[in-house]
Design brief:
By secondary structure, the chain is of the alpha+beta class. The chain has two domains: about 1-105, Pseudouridine synthase (2-Layer Sandwich); about 110-220 and about 235-280, Pseudouridine synthase (2-Layer Sandwich), CATH 3.30.2350. The protein contains six helices and 14 strands. Strands 1, 2, 5, 6, 7, 10, 11, 12, 13 and 14 form a ten-stranded mixed sheet that branches. Strands 3-4 form a two-stranded parallel sheet. The protein has a two-stranded antiparallel ribbon with strand order 8-9. The longest helix is centred in the middle third of the chain and has 12 residues, at about 90-105. GO terms for molecular function: pseudouridine synthase activity; RNA binding.
């Protein structure tokens, strides 16, 4: 019997398995797929990632795949317009093991983000207490009554488009996992994510649409412990639609040009420690 198409990695618009272990797996989520049932834009008919799990992990073998109370094994969310890797547990023991890693900081989640403006390379973290109103489609905000939130940042490249609009390519590692944390953090300091109609000004998002019709936010790396305690990682390059965003851009420096070349070619460093923050132009 042939495996489902999204397991064969044959279609960029379908989820696929990028790392398959006995009791846990990593999926690559394309944009337009919803991870959790109460996610934003509840009125939209997005494709449902949880419903796909039963085709890859039959519930007769993996009962958690149909258990909504345990998120069908999905460990974390990823916004509908975003792409990247998502971790799923195939057993209840794996689910609680990974939940413990998640809440104690043992799970690493790294993102590539293109934002407006030239974020100063000296800015190495973003903090802000993130508050989310529990209703469909609501935005998160930075408020004093919000939950403590921290995003580590590395500014990798500065560029300009043909109209002279400035952009920064960032690597971001989240130390906490609040709803829309990255998007609200960068917008709060004045550098909204490209293509983000929720947190950028409407005119800005509308202008982005021609070159980037969805959020330029891609979770490119996950690292976690497997059932034996060994470190596992899954890394996926920028998808083609995000690579196209850089067409026609110029670079502020040779370092920016080289960083963008690596990211668009899929050869960027994996380890956070190997990512080079921009120096003076």
């Amino acid at each position: 019997i042939d495996p489902p198409p999204w397991r064969r990695r044959s279609c960029p618009d379908e989820p696929c398995v990028v790392l398959d272990l006995p009791d846990r797996s990593v999926l690559q989520k394309p944009p337009g797929w919803r991870v959790d049932a109460d996610e934003e834009d509840a009125g939209q008919k997005w494709s449902q990632l949880p419903q796909c799990l039963s085709s890859a992990f039959p519930p007769r073998l993996w009962p958690i795949a149909r258990d909504a109370e345990h998120q069908r094994g999905l460990l974390h969310r990823l916004d509908v317009p975003s792409s990247g890797v998502v971790l799923v547990a195939k057993t209840y023991a794996a689910f609680w093991d990974l939940q413990l890693q998640l809440v104690t900081g043992g799970m690493i989640r790294d993102y590539a983000v293109l934002c407006h403006g030239w974020l100063p390379p000296a800015r190495l973290e973003l903090r802000g207490r993130v508050h989310w109103h529990r209703r469909a489609g609501s935005a998160s905000t930075v408020l004093q009554r919000g939950r403590p939130s921290k995003s580590l940042t590395k500014t990798l490249a500065h560029s300009l488009d043909g109209m002279g609009v400035a952009f920064s390519l960032l690597a971001i590692r989240i130390a906490t996992g609040r709803r829309h944390q990255i998007r609200v953090h960068v917008a709060h300091v004045g550098y909204p994510t490209v293509g983000d109609s929720k947190y950028a000004a409407q005119t800005t998002a509308a202008n982005d649409f021609a070159s980037c019709p969805r959020n330029f936010l891609h979770r490119y790396r996950l690292a976690f412990a497997d059932g034996a305690g060994s470190t596992q990682e899954a890394v996926v390059p920028l998808p083609p639609d995000l690579v196209l965003t850089f067409e026609g851009m110029s670079f502020r420096s040779r370092a920016s040009q080289e960083a963008l070349r690596q990211w668009t070619a899929g050869s960027a460093p994996r380890r956070w420690e190997d990512l080079r923050t921009l120096g003076p132009p």
